[in-house]
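assembly run, all chains below
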Amino acid sequence: MPSLKDLRNRIASVKATRKITKAMQMVAAAKLRRAQEAAIAARPYAERMDAVLANLAGGVTNREGASPLLVGTGKSDTHLLVVMTAERGLCGGFNTNIAKLARADAIRLMAAGKKVKIMTVGRKGADNLRRDLGKSIVDRADLRNVRSLSFADAEGISNKILGMFDAGEFDVATLYFSEFKSVIAQKPTALQVIPAKVPEAKAATGKSHTAAAVYEYEPDEETILGLLLKRNISTQVFRALLENAASEQGARMSAMDNATRNAGDMINKLTIKYNRMRQANITKELIEIISGAEAL
Amino acid sequence: MASTFKFDLVSPERVLLSAAAEQAVLPGVDGQFTVLPGHAPVVSALMPGVIHVTLTNAKKAVFVKGGFVEINPESVTVLAAHAFVLDEVDPRQLDAELSAAETALAAEKDDEALRHVSRAIEELKALRKTG
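ok done. output:
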């Protein structure tokens, strides 16, 4: 049975914890808004890129000598999993969910006799996967010192990926990140970037002139496509990073909201317990005094 | 024929410029070219350089570090790798850009890339003088 003093200390400590989680929730909310804005601002670029790429790729895919970034290397022996997670914890199941999805895929691929290489972005994913898949981790990118994500960060990562691809170190690359659905829903997602999944040219739904137009290319079609495909990797990485950043803040916000509420419940319970105990002590002392007086 | 076309400049981070324009001069890889309303559909890669846009009520100069442009009769979309509108930028950033480009020049071996980088440096120097 804890003493009154113990209970008082306990209540004070839970109150302090609640203040911290409350503050973290508010910080996450502010950061979430910024991350969301960044993710939305980056969308037009990715959309235009997709549209141009779809237009271009349609005619080239079936041709001889098409870029391996588009059609693949012709085999799928080695897979590169780029696992993107946060640099910090305390955000609910966010990091675990991404790692879980990547791990499941890695195990599935290995069971199918493929070679798996893992590149982690963000510290938490590396920590999570190190124990059972440590041997497969070939590279890790660190974004710990990055305050606000810029396209240059994404380019750094995509250049690493492209460098490995040119060196023939893998055949298929997949990005693992959390898609931002809403503040309370984040979906771990796998997105294959090499060979590129080119969106279908939206002939029926898209704006008529963009779909129907026959473009001239300057320089030639293939050069442009080659450049575009490389740029597309950076764009996809950038999009994934931004989605991830928004998801992380969303996850942290709801995790901290839960924690704050739990702390509140706990404080209530402890306070009731404390008051009952105080009351019981007073009653006990009264009984002692009264029975002492009666004995005289 | 319409006297303007829609000019969009998007960088990976945000939409930098979206307005009606009368004319745009773009630094294509095969040389500078001017776009007027009703231009034939073209997709072109861009060199590092300056885009001059004539909007309906103003002129703007935008520095881009490579990218792509998609041209339709009624719209021009620039997908810039890295861009800033020159009115909004302070000279110090321009200087930083310039020194970065010079470092890149020293490191570059490829002839084609060399040509691109040195052109960008010239453009930047010219801009700094006027600005």
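The mean pLDDT of chain B is 79.

Residues 111-130 of chain B form the longest helix (20 residues).

not gonna interpret more than that til we talk
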